Amino acid sequence: MLEVGCGTGNSLPYLQDAVGPAGHVYGVDISPGMLRKAGELCDANDWRNVDLNECDAGDFTAPAPLDGVLFSLSYNTMPHHRAVLRKAWDQLRPGGRLVIMDARLPPGLAGKLLLPFSLWLMKHTMLGNPLIRPWQELAAIAEHFDMSECRFSSYYICRGMKPLVGVAPRDRAQAANDDAVVDMALDPVHRIAAE
User: Fold this and answer.
1) pLDDT tens-digit profile of 105-132?
2) Inside any domain, residue 191
3) d(CA 184, CA 169)
4) CA torsion angle 131 142 8 59 (round to 10)
5) Less packed terminus of the chain by CB within 10 Å, N or C?
């Protein structure tokens, strides 16, 4: 199991529990300070099957094919998110699962009102790009794609399975919901580079 952007390790207890003592969890983050906190958590719990790596997620290669990959509040912050998704996807074994959990602009008027502030915030902080649509990128390559939303549609979890060898992905053009924010993303006033 790989967590891309593991940060201080908030998800590690759940991942470590999911893989059990025979499994292995890899955590990748570019921040040494956050990884230090994650390492303290691993030491305090005596987790010997968690391996933390300080590197760009696009440069990480697991020593064996992965059963699962998790992006937890990290996908939208990566300027090269598509390259990181491809790298993680390539490391998944057939039948492996990839999950992206992140924040997004809510649909409708709330999203329109928040977009200018979100763009300003993105340019002045490390917070993610509000125009990225990971659910569409994952839906295009995954089997059994699924997406759920919570907190007034401002957070989402999308997940999919890597097809088994020889199985062609079905057409998923309509699998990801499009909403009013798409129209705003195409508006040149709000357009920013997604990569």
Assistant:
1) 666 665 556 555 555 555 545 556 666 7
2) no
3) 29
4) -90
5) C
Q: If we measure between CA atoms, which residue out of 22, 23, 31, 36 comes closest to residue 4? A: 31
Number of domains in the chain: 1
What is the crossing angle of helices 12-19 and 32-45, to 10°? Answer: 50
Domain membership of residue 192 (yes or no) is no
Look up the CATH number of the domain holding residue 68. 3.40.50.150
Q: Please answer whether residues 58 and 80 qualify as being in contact, where contact means their C-beta atoms are separated by less than 8 angstroms.
A: yes
pTM of the predicted model over 0.85: no
Is 84 inside any structural domain?
yes
In a domain, 195, yes or no: no
Q: 44-80 burial by CB neighbour count: b if 16+ within 10 A, else e?
A: eeebeebebbeeebbebebeeebbbbbbbbbbbbbee
The token pair at 150 is 């919570």
Provide the residue range defining the domain that includes 156. Answer: 2-186
Q: Could you tell me if 67 and 43 are in contact, meaning their C-beta atoms sit under 8 angstroms apart?
A: no
Least confident of 66-75, 102-111, 134-143, 185-194: 185-194
